[in-house]
Amino acid sequence: MSSDIQSTFIESAAIDADGISTAAAVGDGANLVIGGALASGGAVTFDQPRNVTILSAGDDSGISFTVTGTDEAGDSATESITGANAGTATGSAYFATVTAIAAVGDPAGNVSAGSGTTIAAPMFRGRMRLRGMYVVNTGTAGTTTFRQTSSSGTVKMQFNTVASANTTQYPDVPDDGILFTGGGYVLYTQGTLSSITVFYS
After folding, report:
1. Do 161 and 111 share a structural domain?
2. CA Rg, the chain, in Å?
3. Contacts of 105 (CB under 8 A, 6+ apart)
């Protein structure tokens, strides 16, 4: 008798502060050039859906930047990120791809854009039942959250990782597993989880 269990391996790359767009001047209403190390063909596809960061050399706290792309579920997405004063502004939306970043206002100096540390990784984008998992920890503890349908959907499960680098955990999923009717997503901060393999049917 064959098993219908499948698996997804989730591991996120290190952040790249200018991986979307390297530092350059940009005018009011103009787009940043999508040409950083993570870009290909004028767009970025992240290893795992994650947030976007904008680094401003000058005071851009009075303007914003509109990020366009697709979200963790593959749907069209936009986010307005208020600029920072000679620092990094951090978005909160999760992007699987980034196709444009536009300045809404006139930046005071060079601007770059890159990948952030918050992840919303898809386990499976259809109906699924979580059966188990294998987790590799980092040196920092944190909460890992499992949501249904999208990164803002119903929380179906949570567990805390252990602050012990390269140790492993096998969080228990009881009985017949946990049902995700519209896809399942793992949300975590990059520094608190090295990798996770989820088993589902």
Report:
1. no
2. 18
3. 28, 60, 62, 63, 64, 83
* Burial status of residue 27 (CB atoms within 10 A of its CB: 0-12, 13-18, 19 or more): exposed
- The structure tokens listed for 145 are 């959250």
The pTM score is 0.93
Query: Which residue, chain included where needed, has tokens 């790359």?
Result: 13
Residues of the domain holding 157: 125-200
The tally of domains found in the chain comes to 2
- Cα angle 118, 122, 127; round to 5: 145
Distance linking the first and last C-alpha atoms of the chain = 15
Give me the pLDDT at residue 68, please: 98
Identity at 67, one-letter amino acid code: V
Residues 175 and 112 in one domain: no
- The predicted-structure confidence for 139-194, as pLDDT tens digits, reads as follows 999 999 999 999 999 999 999 999 999 999 999 898 899 999 999 999 999 999 99
SS3 content of the chain, % helix, strand, coil (to 5): 0, 55, 45
Asked whether the beta carbons of 61 and 72 are under 8 A apart, the reply is no
Both 129 and 112 in one domain: the answer is no
Phi, psi dihedrals of residue 190, rounded to the nearest 5°? -50, -40
